[in-house]
Amino acid sequence: MNAGRKILVVGGGGYVGPVLTEHLLGAGYGVRNMDLFLYATQEVLAPFDANPRFEMVQADHCDRARLAGALDGVTDVVILGGLVGDPITRKYPDAHRVINHDGILGLIDTLDGRGLDRVVFVSTCSNYGLVDGDALAGEDYPLKPLSLYAEAKVAVEQRLLALAGKVDYRPTILRFATAFGLAPRMRFDLTVNEFTREMYLGRELLVYDSHTWRPYCHLGDFCDVIGRVLEAAERDVAFQVFNAGGDTGNFTKQMIVDAILEFLPDAPIRYENKGQDTRNYRVDFAKIRTVLDFEPAYTVRDGISELIKALDDQRFDDADARPNFYGNYEIDYPVAG
Ligand SMILES: NC(=O)c1ccc[n+]([C@@H]2O[C@H](COP(=O)([O-])OP(=O)(O)OC[C@H]3O[C@@H](n4cnc5c(N)ncnc54)[C@H](O)[C@@H]3O)[C@@H](O)[C@H]2O)c1
User: Containing domain of residue 82, as a range?
Assistant: First the structure.
C-alpha cells in the first residue's frame, strides 16, 4: 500500500530521524532524507545507503533551490529539521531565527502546488510552557512559549493552520512530548537519557526543580504516531493538532530519578530548586488516543532499562569524547550569533 509513496524527511539526520527512516522504510515507503548535519552525524544514515528506496540529500532547508529539488517526486513531507532545544537556540539566536523561523516558514511556502498528500510538522509540548495547578493541557490549552525554540514552533503552527482552504496539501501538527529511547545518534542532553547515563556512570546528578512535570515518550512510539498520521483518513488529521504521547508519560523529574534508582539504587543525587528552566506542564493525550487509536507501547522504565543494557554493552563509550555528536551543544552555521 505504501510502495507508491515517497516521504521527504527534513532534518532526518539527528536523534529522531534515523529511527523514523528505518520505520518508514520498513513500512514500505520510499524515503528521501534532507539534512545539513549540523552536528556531523552523517554516519547515522550510512546504513541505509544500500537500500534502493533510500536517498540522501545533504543540504540546508533554507536553500530554496536545493529544497525544491528535494521536493521533486515526493508524495509527503515530515518536518523534523531545526535547531532543537532551549539551550542551543539561546546560544545561537540568529541561527535560530534563520533556521527555525524564517527557514521553516519558507519551506512551508514552497510546499503548495506540488500535489503533496500529507505534511507532518513536528512541534513540541514545550509550547504549553507553564500549566496552572493540576490542569492537563489539551490541544486547545493556551500556549505560553517560554523560549525562542517554542516561540518559533508556535509561529509555524499558526502559519500552517491559517492555510486551510488555501493550499493543496493537508498539514498535521504533532506536539511531541520530550523524547527518550535508543537511537544511532543518542541525545544525552535529554532528561531520561541524560539522567540514566549519569547515574549509571556513578556521577553525582544535579537535579533542578525536581517537582516540575513534563510528558515523555519513546522514539519508537513517535515513529508509530507519524506512521498513523500518514495512513489516517484525511478528515481525521487534516489541519489538526495532536499532542503526541500518552497520559502515563507525564512525569516529574523526581519520578524519573526514582524510576532510575529502582535499577541503580546507589547512584548519587543532589537537588536544587529555582533552576533556570521554568517550564512545568502536564499534558492531556486524549485526542490522539481517541482519533488515532494511539497509546504508547513503551514506558519510561522501558527506556531506562534498554539504555542501561546498551551501556552495559559499552555501546556509547565514546559519548564523553564526542559530546556534540551526542547532544545539541555547538554548531558551525554561517550566520553571526
Ligand atoms: N527530541 C525531543 O525530545 C523532541 C521533543 C519535542 C519535539 N521534538 C522535535 O522533533 C524534531 C527532531 O528532534 P531531534 O531530537 O531529532 O533533533 P536533532 O537536533 O537531533 O535533529 C535535528 C536535525 O535537523 C538538522 N537541521 C538543522 N538545521 C537544518 C537545516 N537548516 N537544514 C537541514 N537540516 C537541518 C540537524 O542537522 C539535525 O540532524 C525537531 O523538530 C524537534 O523540535 C523533539
Answer: 6-180+217-247+283-297
Is the residue at 223 inside a domain? yes
What is this structure's pTM? Answer: 0.97
Residue 293 burial (CB < 10 Å; 0-12/13-18/19+)? exposed
Whether 106 is in a domain gets the answer: yes
Express each pLDDT in 274-317 by its tens digit: 766 667 889 999 999 999 999 999 999 999 999 999 999 999 99
Whether residue 249 has its Cβ less than 6 Å from ligand 1: no
Residue 173 inside a domain? The answer is yes
Specify the 3-state DSSP secondary structure of 23: helix
- Tell me the β-bridge partners of 9: 33, 78
Task: Say if ligand 1 is within 6 A of residue 326 CB.
Answer: no
Location of C-alpha cell 502515563:
248
Consecutive H or E run containing 170: strand 170-176
Task: Tell how far the Cα of 38 is from the centroid of ligand 1, in angstroms.
Answer: 10
- pLDDT computed for residue 3 by the predictor: 76
- Give the distance (Å) from ligand 1 centre to CA of residue 134: 30
